[in-house]
């Protein structure tokens, strides 16, 4: 037992922390309760949580908290994304099984930013979206640590191409607004890829309902088509909506001397889209369904009309069926061999095109494309 000089308090002894009013000194000595350490740490974790959480969407049904945590721990280590020291990067995982998304909480802000590079990575056979959560505050996060992935991450180690994760960032990112809400990702991609393959694509959806919000972002692999695609698609009517397509960063544009060439190419590409059937209209054109010989007999022709009417009604409000017939004199007739289905709205025609394209009919594979409404109204069936 140490000898204490008269008048010396425990706080004056070497190695003994000063007493806090209202607290027993032994509490500090044994580390049972130290608000000076615990409270700031808890406050720091809460304050940085929005910048440490990662939204992961598009999870397969088999995903659970453990498999998601193990996966992200492994891939973060593989790409060199762990910067907070040894150990696992993931602290916690919450999964919404109904909506097929998860929130993955990382142990540091920098590691969460590095995880942004994993957008599009394959998890149990499904490409998943890696995004910031809705409560992410960029201005607050900027003071907490890096907000962008480390450019030296080894993404190739997990099958990603450098730039693919950040494929939706940069001056060539395109905003696509005014999309009909019923358009699927595949339909939007089909429209955009008329100009070339995409490096990045995101159809923005409501996280509660999973429904499209009517706008998307994309980046082309060939950046030279960026302005051509914007000029060709902007202002196009899609059902009762009009597309707004522009660079997400309006300040980034082509030099003035290139504008004329871009507009010319855009006009040519828009014509190709309209003729080629990539732009949705209320009219669907089917080929490889009927032959000229089948249309010569009146009774057989009426049967075919009725069959197509019955089939077409399965997809929406069918207004008209047109099947051009051969002329008995042998004179050429435009559109012989094609079937035209006109719907009351683009919703019905879109479902019909999706449902009929690729189906087998009489041993042939049906080809379904959209047809320009103005040509159909003018009874021009040669497109």
Automatic annotation (TrEMBL):
GO terms for biological process: mRNA processing; RNA splicing. It comes from the Eukaryota. The keyword Membrane does not apply. SUPFAM superfamilies: RNA-binding domain, RBD (SSF54928). Transmembrane segments: none annotated. CDD domains: RRM1_U2AF65, RRM2_U2AF65, RRM3_U2AF65. The keyword Transferase does not apply. Keywords: mRNA processing, mRNA splicing, Nucleus, Repeat, RNA-binding. GO terms for molecular function: RNA binding. SMART domains: RRM (SM00360). Residues 52-135, 172-250 form the RRM domain. GO terms for cellular component: nucleus. It holds the Pfam family RRM_1. It is found in: Nucleus. InterPro entries: Nucleotide-bd_a/b_plait_sf, RBD_domain_sf, RRM_dom, U2AF_lg. Necessary for the splicing of pre-mRNA. NCBIfam families: U2AF_lg. Belongs to the splicing factor SR family. This is Splicing factor U2af large subunit. The gene is gb13468.
């Amino acid at each position: 037992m140490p000898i204490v000089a008269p008048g010396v308090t425990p706080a004056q002894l070497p190695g003994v922390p000063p007493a806090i009013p209202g607290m027993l000194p032994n509490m500090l000595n044994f580390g049972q309760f130290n608000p000076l350490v615990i409270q700031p740490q808890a406050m720091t974790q809460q304050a940085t949580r929005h910048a440490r959480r990662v939204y992961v969407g598009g999870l397969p049904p088999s995903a659970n908290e453990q498999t998601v945590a193990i996966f992200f721990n492994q891939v973060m280590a593989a790409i060199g994304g762990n910067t907070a020291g040894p150990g696992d990067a993931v602290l916690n995982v919450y999964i919404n099984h109904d909506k097929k998304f998860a929130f993955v909480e990382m142990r540091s802000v920098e590691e969460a930013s590095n995880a942004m590079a994993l957008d599009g990575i394959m998890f149990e056979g499904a490409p998943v979206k890696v995004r910031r959560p809705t409560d992410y505050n960029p201005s607050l996060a900027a003071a907490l640590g890096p907000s962008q992935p480390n450019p030296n991450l080894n993404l190739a180690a997990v099958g990603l191409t450098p730039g693919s994760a950040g494929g939706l960032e940069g001056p060539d990112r395109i905003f696509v607004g005014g999309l009909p809400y019923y358009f699927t990702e595949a339909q939007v991609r089909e429209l955009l890829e008329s100009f070339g393959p995409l490096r990045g694509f995101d159809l923005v959806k409501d996280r509660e309902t999973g429904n499209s919000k009517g706008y998307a972002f994309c980046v082309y692999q060939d950046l030279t088509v960026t302005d051509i695609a914007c000029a060709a698609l902007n202002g196009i009517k899609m059902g009762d909506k009009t597309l707004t397509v522009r660079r997400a960063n309006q300040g980034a544009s082509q030099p003035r001397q290139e504008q004329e060439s871009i507009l010319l190419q855009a006009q040519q590409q828009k014509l190709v889209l309209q003729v080629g059937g990539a732009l949705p209209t209320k009219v669907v054109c089917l080929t490889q369904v009927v032959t000229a010989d089948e249309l010569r007999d009146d009774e057989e022709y009426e049967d075919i009309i009725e069959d197509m009417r019955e089939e077409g009604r399965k997809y929406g409000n069918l207004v008209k069926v047109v099947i051009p017939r051969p002329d008995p004199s042998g004179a050429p007739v435009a559109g012989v061999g094609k079937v035209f289905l006109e719907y009351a709205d683009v919703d019905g025609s879109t479902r019909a095109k999706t449902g009929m394209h690729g189906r087998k009919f009489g041993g042939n594979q049906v080809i379904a494309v959209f047809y320009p409404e103005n040509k159909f109204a003018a009874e021009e069936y040669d497109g």
